[in-house]
């Protein structure tokens, strides 16, 4: 890792886009150690957070898919590359799975009914935007601080 996280409780680890439980890995300094090695050629992504105010805010928005809504509200300054979007814990790919413009995140196809949607906006310095998607489902959000995002690709 390029930084030393406070602890694994301040990290999100994904293997091939799937969020891992904290019980499946440990962090020691800048080393990430899995209890079981990921499959060969897996893509591993690590996001580390801290509550230090020297870094930008992050906002987490959660929604529930309804099978038809594709537009969801995000902070106006958000871009496709400044968010981590997941559907039922599977991280989505910017541009091919969603786009962001003028405070709206648009999926290329509507998330399925009852599908859990999480949008984590990284390094936002202003306050959160309007709540709720431009569709029928409500939103909840929480605010914290971001310290670093490190992506490691296996091969």
Structural commentary:
It is built from no helices and 13 strands. The chain is an all-beta fold and 155 residues long. The chain has an eight-stranded antiparallel sheet, with no helix packed on it. Strands 7-11-10 form a three-stranded antiparallel sheet, with no helix packed on it. A two-stranded antiparallel sheet has the order 3-4.
Helix amount, in percent? under 10%
The first-to-last residue Cα distance is: 17 Å
CA-based gyration radius: 16 Å
| Order of secondary-structure elements | EEEEEEEEEEEEE
In terms of DSSP E residues, the strand content is: over 45%
Enumerate the strands of the largest sheet in spatial order, edge to edge or round the barrel.
2-1-5-13-6-12-8-9
- Describe the main β-sheet briefly: 8 strands, antiparallel
Uncertain regions: pLDDT < 50 for 5+ in a row? 124-155
Overall 3D geometry?
globular
Q: How many β-strand stretches?
A: 13
Mean pLDDT: 76
Tell me the number of helical segments per DSSP (H or I, 4 or more residues long).
0
Labels describing this entry:
single chain, 155 residues, mainly beta, 13 strands, 46% strand, disordered C terminus
């Amino acid at each position: 890792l390029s930084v030393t996280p406070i602890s694994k409780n301040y990290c999100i680890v994904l293997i091939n886009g799937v969020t891992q439980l904290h019980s499946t890995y440990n962090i020691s300094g800048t080393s990430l150690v899995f209890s079981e090695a990921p499959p060969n050629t897996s893509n591993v992504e690590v996001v580390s957070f801290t509550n230090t105010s020297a870094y930008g805010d992050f906002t987490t928005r959660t929604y529930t898919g309804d099978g038809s809504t594709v537009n969801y509200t995000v902070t106006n300054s958000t871009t496709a590359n400044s968010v981590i979007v997941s559907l039922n814990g599977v991280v989505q790919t910017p541009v091919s799975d969603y786009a962001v413009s003028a405070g709206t995140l648009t999926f290329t196809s509507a998330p399925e009914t009852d599908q859990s949607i999480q949008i984590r906006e990284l390094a936002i310095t202003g306050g959160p935007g309007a709540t709720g998607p431009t569709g029928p489902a409500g939103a909840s959000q929480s605010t914290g601080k971001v310290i670093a995002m490190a992506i490691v690709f296996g091969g």
